[in-house]
Specification:
88 residues, mainly alpha, 4 helices, 0% strand, globular, binds zinc ion
């Protein structure tokens, strides 16, 4: 169990649905989910990413749209392989 000091700041979690893996703020998702995003959407997310946006909390509308598309794409894929259980 994690106690006190460390990890006390607001944790940034993977944006995929039902995933609570902690990821660096500039990453949208954990590795596993990120690689479930179709390559063109991944490129769109990076193309619209602005360094520092995770610090000033002011991402562009384009980035948010791309991010949402990516999240949806992952959710879609997960639905398709519903049968598999979560590895946790
Ligand atoms: Zn994840």
């Amino acid at each position: 169990m994690e106690s006190t000091t460390r990890a006390r700041r607001v944790a940034h979690l993977c944006h995929a649905k039902r995933c609570d893996v902690r990821v660096p703020p500039k990453m949208l998702m954990c590795r596993k989910h990120w690689y479930m995003v179709p390559p063109d959407l991944r490129a769109a997310v990076w193309a619209t990413y602005r360094p520092g946006q995770e610090i000033d909390k002011d991402p562009s509308a384009e980035y948010l749209a791309a991010a949402l598309d990516a999240i949806d794409a992952v959710a879609e894929r997960e639905r398709q392989r519903e049968g598999q259980r979560e590895d946790h």
